[in-house]
Amino acid sequence: MKTLLCVLGVLMGLCGIALASTPIVTFWETSYFFVLLLLVYGAASMARGVTKKEYGGNFLFGILSVVAGLLILFVPGLKFMTSSTIIYLMAVWFLLQGAVFLVFGVRAKKTNAETKKWLGNLVMGVFSIILGIYSLIHPVALAFSVGVLIGIYFIISGINLVILGIQLEKK
């Protein structure tokens, strides 16, 4: 087990280096993760509907999810369109999150909060809005950074697996 963890950790770290080295390709391939989510959610919803003999909204959305996942997977151009849409959804998410932080910051300031939490909320709100606007103007920069972050995640996870394998060896 410990050797397997170390080998998997090294392989995951090497994959992380490869992913971080090609961040745009890494980002474009994340649409496969989205397809997988659609297929798993759809299958689970349909299975739950069949076992409980409930063929309402959840069952219908399960079918639609599976169909959407298969369409994105097999129809040329839909995978690219899905990845492009994800970029803009993330940019809009940053804008909405910034607005929420600003509202919470203003509310906290009005209630004379003892802590300086209101200032942190205002700073995060402004930062999120700037990031959202920048992401809308330069979507490739967002795709690049997401690809690098996925690579870094794999590298850190690989290091954690190697450390776990080494710690198991000592016990």
Secondary-structure element sequence? HHHHHHH
Beta-strand content estimate: under 5%
Q: Which structural class do the helices and strands define?
A: mainly alpha
Sheet with the most strands, sense and barrel status? none
Radius of gyration: 21 Å
Description:
This protein is mostly helical and 171 residues long. Helices cover 89% and strands 0% of the residues. The chain has helices at 2-21, 23-28, 31-52, 57-74, 78-110, 117-137, 139-170. Helix 3 (31-52) packs antiparallel against helix 4 (57-74), helix 5 packs antiparallel against helix 6 and helix 6 (117-137) packs across helix 7. The mean pLDDT is 86.
Protein traits:
single chain; extended; 7 helices; 171 residues; mainly alpha
Structural topology:
Elements: H1 2-21, H2 23-28, H3 31-52, H4 57-74, H5 78-110, H6 117-137, H7 139-170
Summarize the structure.
The protein is mainly α and 171 residues long. The chain has seven helices and no strands.
